[in-house]
Amino acid sequence: QRIGDTIDFSKTPTLKELEKRFLNQTVIIANKEEKIYEFMALNNALSIKVQSLKGEIRSVIDTNTQKEMLFSFERCQELLFKMLK
């Protein structure tokens, strides 16, 4: 985590702010350590790409539908803070 950054949770984060906070950070997804590799903005939603420890890059998917998950900017930030290692 970054020390010294003040985050205003009353404002919607921008793509640039999310990249600054989370790119290359290690998160735990489905009991596996992965790094945030890329955010892809699609209209008002985000797709998250992660990189495994083996170097494989994939999108975060819904395990029920097997489709790429899309997040609002606020929800993305909320979830990633909970998943940081």
How many helices in DSSP terms? 2
- Major sheet: size, sense and barrel closure? 4 strands, antiparallel
Strand coverage percent: 25-35%
Sequence stretches where pLDDT stays below 50 over 5 or more residues: none
Rg estimate, integer Å: 13 Å
**CATH topology grouping:** SH3 type barrels
What spatial order of strands do you see in the largest sheet? 1-2-3-4
Task: Output the helix-strand order.
Answer: HEEEEH
Helical content, roughly?
Answer: 10-25%
Describe this structure in words.
The protein is α+β, with helices and mostly antiparallel strands and 85 residues long. The protein has one domain: SH3 type barrels (Roll), CATH 2.30.30. The chain has 2 helices and 4 strands. The chain has a 4-stranded antiparallel beta sheet. The protein starts with 14 loop residues before the first helix and ends with a helix. The model has no long low-confidence stretch (mean pLDDT 91).
Short description:
With 85 residues, the protein is of the alpha+beta class. It contains two helices and four strands.
Give the helix/strand layout.
Blueprint: H1 15-22, E1 26-29, E2 32-42, E3 45-52, E4 57-59, H2 73-83
Antiparallel strand pairs: 1-2, 2-3, 3-4
Identify the notable features of this structure and list them briefly:
85 residues, SH3 type barrels, alpha+beta
